[in-house]
Structures are given as structure tokens and as C-alpha cells.
Amino acid sequence: MLDLLISNTVLYDGSGRPPARGAVGVAGDRIVKIYGLADPTDPARDTLDADGLALMPGIIDNHTHYDAQITWDRTLEPSCGQGVTTVILGNCGFAIAPCRPADREFTMRTLTQVEGMSLAALREGIRWSFETFPQYLDLLEAQGAVPNLAVFIGHSSVRTYVMGADSVRRAAAAPEITRMAALVDEGLRAGAVGFATSTSPAHNGEGGLPVPSRLADETELRELVRCLGTAGRGVFMLTKGGQTRLEFLEELNRVACRRPVIVAALLHNRTNPEGVFRELDALQQANARGGTMAGAVSCCPLTMDFTMASPYPLEGLQAWRPALGLDGAAYRATLADPAFRQGLRDELSRPAAFRLFNGEWGEVRVSAAGLPGNADLEQSSVAELAARSGKDPLDLFLDLALEEDLGTVFTATLLNSDEEAVARLLRHPASLVSLSDAGAHLTFFNDAGFGLHLIGHWARERGALSVAAAVRKLTAEPAALFGLADRGRLHPGFAADLVLFDPTRVGRGARQRVYDLPAGAGRLTTPAIGLHGVWVNGTRILDERGLVASVRAGGTRPGRLLRDFAAQ
After folding, report:
1. What angle do CA 260, 475, 134 make, to 5 degrees?
2. CA distance 444 to 440
3. DSSP 3-state of 566
4. Residues of the chain with pLDDT > 70: what percent?
5. Which CATH number does the domain 59-301+417-483+490-552 belong to among 3.40.50.2000, 3.40.50.450, 3.40.190.10, 3.20.20.140?
6. Could you give the CA distance from residue 154 to residue 144 in angstroms, rounded to a whole number?
7. 409-426 as b/e: b if 16+ CB within 10 A
């Protein structure tokens, strides 16, 4: 007897083929039968007439930062409410294991700076009952979770564990690299999905110091990535700075590890419109030479809320470095310094391929003034306000922030604002739809609903790709790249990770700010639209009203910690 029969549905099976009417039978945690047009007659303990709604495999979110949140929030809000059934943690190398007790504060402060997390929430919320990476995985497995989990072992965590305070100051010596490699190997044997790192200049820790992985040279990276080849499993994920050569990454892919390489974060920049396509074309050419490389792209505009008390969009600029790590009067004096401002203007005048902020002042608006007398400035762009006042836009921007004691809330659309260009990204053969950053930058933006946005906006509304193609990009494609052999498809024998949705309505709603993190910290979220059901390993976690009561109460945790990955 079946445990669940979903009938009268339109099946998007993850293959990219056109949809077909049919039904799905589930026994335990597996899909056991796919039915065609004929009405199924097999008995089932639970039946659901979908009334023509669409059924697809669960969304695989391959770029999250839930490493800390998972220790206190087994539901991983808001991802589970957005059709996500599998999340991959540890991206960019920003993990919380391995971590010595003496390094916990440093790790939390780094996450606060680089990933926009609340330090108070991290201090109150993280359950530090582990030190090593295998112990961290054992914790996740023992406590359970609502979605399935896969975890990268992170470069910055490994580097800190071996080098301590020197991890953010210098290159590693040969014995230190050997010890790091042993930790990466240990993590892969314990069940890591791969090894992740970052060379991005936008990634800075407390005091403006670079995150530990940015101090690694090519020798260190080569030796650590070689662990993947020795293990014969896992994915290498890198958030790329402009100084990192694609030729070097291709060498790692084809020679050092012979494992898939994911290059992030490839977003469109209107001031250098072809730069991202040159990167993707180079990855495609590497694949034609026998490689397996993918460029992580986003289907969402990168829009951030921020104040100049935490100016994340600007911190990757070289000219911003004199302000990094400053606070109080010294920081304000630097923002007012004409020479500092001119340095910013000079850098922003030069196009760059990998840069968050590119001086597009028409895309930066005042969303909340810090002083009542400035309320009339709200919803105007910096470019508009500068034109009205006759000021240079950078001067107006910094003068307003200083006038309002750094309390002005700005909203900036930084990248991916050209929809024709983003459509090209999504259709590029070397692209991987990714970069939700769920769990991070909680006060700046929330793209956990990226999958619903891809189907609703890009497929239904824009027609940039078919719904079937969008489903494939969210399911079968990442499953194949990461070696999730039994997920990402509606197929007998595969895990019953399912999403039931209305293709005429599906999407994500307007941003909302809620205060449900430890210590009362806030986060942005976007409600799901058009979702009618989500199942993880055959267990329903969401209906048309949202997460089911047993999930919200913490009693239902059907997700699995994934430790075994098929070789590619």
C-alpha cells in the first residue's frame, strides 16, 4: 500500500521535458510509482487530489549560510517555506567548524562583518557542542532538521583552526598547509559535500581584516583542493576575486582534483556589461576541453538595505580601506575627508568585473531618513537629490549619512538590474542558478525565495525560459553537479522531495521585516505565493496555509544529513 498518492496533477519531472498530466505514488521516503493519464487505482493511506496544480521535485538551494542558524533553528526559516527541500551550507568557506573554543568569538565576529549576521543573535543562539568538523556533522544528524542538509568544509574555518590569529595576517608555511589538508581530508571522509573558499575583496572580517582564506596563495589552494581528487568525491566552490585567474581554476579542475568547480558570484554589472559573459564563456570553453566548471549566477536583482554604520556594499573597494576597522570620530572624519572621497570617485570611474557597488547613484535611494526633518528625501534616489542640490552624488550620500549620525537607511540595487542581461545569464550553458545567500545578510536582503522567483518571474512573466527549464535548473542540474544521486527528479526510487504549486500564481511576495532571531534580532523575509504543498522525504512540511503545525512546533524533522555523494 502507498503512504501517499498525489493525483490529478501536472508533473514537471526535473528533466526539462514538457509537463504531463499524471500522479505520483510515495511509500515511506521514496517515490515508487509515476502514473500517466489513467486514474491510479493503488490504495493509499493518504490521498490528495491536486485539482490540476503542478508538482515538481523539491528545490535544491546550493548557496546558503545557515551554518550557525541550523544549531538553533531546525526549520531553517524562511527557506522551507519557499519550496526548498535541500540546503547546502558552508559556502565561501564561512563555516563554524572546525572551531576551537578560543576561536569562537573571532568566528562569530567574522560572520557578523562578512555575512551581516547579528553578533547578539550568534552569541545567544549557537549551540557550541562541537569542535571538529565531524563532530559538527554528528550534531546536525543527531538533532535533525526539516530540510535535507549538505555541508562544505570551509577554508577560513580550517585556516583559523591551524593558524589562529595569523590566519588573517600571512601566507601559510608548508607544515601548516599539511595540517590544513589533513583537516579537509578528515571532513571529506566524514561526509562533507566539498571544500569552499573565497578570494573576494568584498569579504572582510572584523576591523577590516581580510577573511582568512584571502591570505592563501596558489600553493595552499592547490594542496587543499587536491584532497578532493584523493577522495574522489566532492565539489570545489570558490567566491572569486578579480585577481584569481580562471586558468588556475581550470588547472585545479582538470589536474589537481578532477572534481566539479563552482565559481561565484557571477552577477551582471551595467558599468561593465560584458564582463560577466566573458567569465561564463571562459567556463564554457574550459568544459569543452574536458572540464566540469559552472558559474554561480543569481536570478534576483542584488538589492540591499544598509546604513553607513555597516556599509557592506562599499567595503570591497580598495579606496574604502582607510575606513575599514574605524569607528566613532575617526570613522566620521574619514568619511568627511576630501582626499578619501576623491579616491572613491577615482576607483568608481574605472569599470570592474567583480565589484558590488559601481557608482550607480540612480540605483541608490533613501528608504528611511534618520531625522524627521528629512522625511521628504525618502524614496528619492541619491542621483535625484544630488541633481536638485547641485552636489556631487558621492558628497551628497556621505554628507547625508554624517548629518543623520549614520542612521540613514539606503536601499541600493547593486547588480543584476538589467533584466535582458540577467535572462542571458540564466540561459547560458555554463551557469548554475544559485546565490540565495539564505541565512546571511539578514538585515540587507533575502533571496531564499529565488526558486519561486525563477519560476514565477522569469518563466511565467518574462518567458526567458520555460517553466520546465526553470524547474530543471532548480532541481536536476544542481543534484547532478553535487552528486545528489537520488534527488532532483520525479522518478521511481528517488527521494520524495516534492513541491505542489500553482504555476499561474507562484512567486515571492514583498519584503517584510520580522524579529524572530535570538536576542530579538531582525531579518528580512519574503512570503511565498502559490505554494500548496512541500514534502521532504515523503513527509508534508507545508500546506496552502504555510508550514504545518508540527513543523512549527519543532516535532517534525524529516530532513536527512547527506553524507554520500555520487562521483561525477
Report:
1. 55
2. 9
3. coil
4. 99
5. 3.20.20.140
6. 21
7. bbbbbbbbbeeebbbbbb
C-alpha cell, 190: 566524514
> How many CB atoms are closer than 10 A to CB 41?
7
Contact 307, 406 (CB under 8 A): yes
Strand order in the sheet with 261-266: 59-61, 84-89, 148-154, 194-198, 235-239, 261-266, 293-297, 431-433
What stretch of H or E contains 402?
helix 393-403
- Residue that is written with C-alpha cell 582568512 in the block: 212
The alpha carbon torsion through 532, 302, 125, 537 (nearest 10 deg) reads 30
Grid cell 540613514 is found at 408
Residue with cell 528629512: 374
- Residue 442 has a pLDDT of 76
pLDDT over threshold 90, residue 443: no
- Tell me the three cell numbers of residue 456: 514565477
What mean pLDDT do residues 2-21 have?
98
DSSP state of 114: H
Nearest to 393 by CA among 352, 355, 362, 357: 362
For the full predicted model, state whether its pTM sits above 0.70: yes
The domain spans of the chain are: 59-301+417-483+490-552, 305-413
Q: Which residues in 266-288 are b (16+ Cβ under 10 Å) and which e?
A: bbbbebbeebbbebbebbbebbe
Measured CA to CA, the distance from residue 117 to residue 113 in angstroms comes to 7
Tell me the DSSP string of 496-508. --EEEE-TTT-EE
Per-residue cell: 505 = 500564481
Spatial distance between the Cα atoms of 216 and 198, rounded to a whole number of angstroms: 10
Indicate whether 304 pLDDT > 90.
no
